[in-house]
Amino acid sequence: MSDRLEVRKTYKLLVNGAFPRSESGRTYEVLSARGEFLANVAQGSRKDLRDAVVAARAAQSKWWSSSAYNRGQVIYRCAEMAESRRAELAEHVGLAEGVGAKQSAKSVARAIDRIIWYAGWTDKVAQVFGGANPVAGPFFNFSVPKPCGVVAVVASQDSSLEGFVDQVFAPLCTGNSVIAVSSERRPTPSILLGEMTATSDFPPGVLNIVTGVTSELAPILASHEDVDGIDLTGLDQSAATELHALAAGSIKRVFRSSAHDTSSSTRRLRTFIDTSTVWHTIGQ
Amino acid sequence: MAPEEIGVIIARSNDAPTIESEAQLRALLSGLSGVDAVGVEARAAKLATRSIKKSTKMTAIDLAISMVDLTTLEGADTPGRVRSLCTKALRPDPRDLTVPSVAAVCVYPDLVAQARTALGDANVSVAAVATAFPSGRASMAVKLLDVREAVEAGADEIDMVIDRGAFLAGRLGQVYEEIVAVKQACGDAHLKVILETGELVTYDNVRRASWLAMLAGADFIKTSTGKVAVNATPPVALVMLEAVRDFAETSGRVVGVKVAGGIRSTKDAMKYLVIVNETAGSAWLTPQRFRFGASSLLNDLLMQRLKQQRGAYVRPDEFSGD
User: Which of residues 214-253 of A touch B (CB under 8 A)?
Assistant: First the structure.
C-alpha cells in the first residue's frame, strides 16, 4: 500500500461567518519562526475589509441586543472549543513564535483562561463601569455603558494567540462586533481561533478575521468611516501615530499600546464603550 | 447601436405592425425564436464581471442616479413620507449640487397628488402603480378607473401590471386588449408595463410578453413589481433589452426598459448598465430609455459617489433613510 497523501489545509479569511478566500485571489507564504514554510495564507484586500465592515455593522445590533448572560455563554463556549483543540493551538503557537512545547502549551492555557475571564466580564461591565448617579432632584440618574459599535483590531505582531485573544474579546464582551487583521507573520493561531468561533454560536459577522499585509490593511480600517473604534497594538509607534490621525477623521475611539500588555487591565474594555446617561422620574 | 442609427431607422420605417386579431398576435409571438437559456445566463454572468473604475465609475454612478425611480410602495406610506421622498428625489445629496436628481418618484395612486405638489414643475416625474398593483387581479373597469384617477391627480407615468394568469393560460388577446385600453386611459402619461418576470417561468415567455407589451403600445417594459420572490435578474434584463432592440429595428418605435426589485447596490446597478450598453446599445443609456425601480439603491449610489471623492469608505447613515 502506498503512503497516504497528506491533506493540506487552506487558511482562509473569516467574514460574515463564512470562510472565503480573498476576493483578490492573492495568498502569501507564512514561514515558521525558524524560517521553514508553514502555510499559504489568504492575503486580504480592501474589498475583503469592506465586506467585513458591512457584515460587522449588520451583526452588531443583534449581538448587543442579546442578553449579557447569553454573550458570556457564547464566549465561554469558544473557550470550550479552544480547550479541546489545545494541542493543535500549542503546535501553531510554537511554530509561529519559535518557542518550546512547554512554553507554547502554557501560552495557550493562559489564552484560554483569558477568554473565560472575558466571558465573565459580559454581565459585569454595566455594574462596574455604570451606576446610579446622585442628583439634586426627584430623579433617578443612571450611567449605562454601551458598545461603541464596530471595532477594528490590528493584532499584535508578536503575540500570536494571547495578544489576539485580549484584543478581540475585550471589545466583543462589551457588545461590539470586531474586524481583526491578524499578525502578518504569525497568523495561523488566530485563524484556528476564528474557526472555533464558528462552532461557538457567535452570530455570523460578529467576529471577522482578515489575514494579509498589515501596512496595506490597517490604513483602510483606520479611515473607514463606518468603523467606530480601532486598536492599533500591532503597529510600531510611527505607523500608529499616522493611523491615529486618520482615525480622527471619523472620530474613532483609539487604543494604543506599545507591546502586548499581559496584566489583567480593563483599559481595553473601557476604551470601546460609550456611556449614556438616562434620567427617569422617581414614581410613587 | 448608435443614436443616429436609430434616428435613421425611425425616419424610414413604418409604425409597429398593427394587430387585427388574436390569431395574428399568437402567430407573431410564437414566430419569435426561443431563448437559449444557458447562453443568456452565461452572457449575463460574463458581462457582470466587467470592472468599471475611476472617472468612468463616477459617470456611471451619476447616470444611475439620474435613472432611479425612487420608489415607496408600502402599506404604511404616508403623505409625509412621500413629501420627504420627493425632497430627496430633487436633491439626493443636499450638500453636493453636482448630484443629479432622480428620474421619477414612484408611489401608489392615492399619493400621486401629494407627490405632484411636492415636486411642482421640477424635472422629476411622478409615476404611479395602477391597475390593481401588484397582482393585477381586478375587473377591467376597476383597473381603468385606477389609471384615470392617477393621471387626473397628476401622474406623468403609469406602471401597470399585466394579468399573468391570463398570459400563462394563453389568453394573449385579453392581455393585449388590456394594455391597449390602459394606454388609451393614460392619455399623455407614459405607460410602463410590468411583466412580473418572476412569475413568467421561462425566458421564452419573457420574450413573448415583452413583444406583446410593445406591440400593444407600452412606452416602457418593466421586469417586476418587487412584491414577489424573484425580481429583476441580469439574464431577464438581457432578454428584455434584446426584445426592445429588435423591436426598434423592425418597427422603428423605441421602447425603454425598467428593472425593478432587489437592486440594492451600486455594483448591481453597474452590472445592468453594462448589459444595457452591450445589448441595446449606448443609445439606451439615458433615463428616457432605462430606469431602475429602487429605494435603497439610491443611498448606496450616493455612498459610493462620496467614497470615490473622499478616498475612504463612508458610513451609511450619512444619508437619510427616506
Answer: 220, 223-226, 249-250
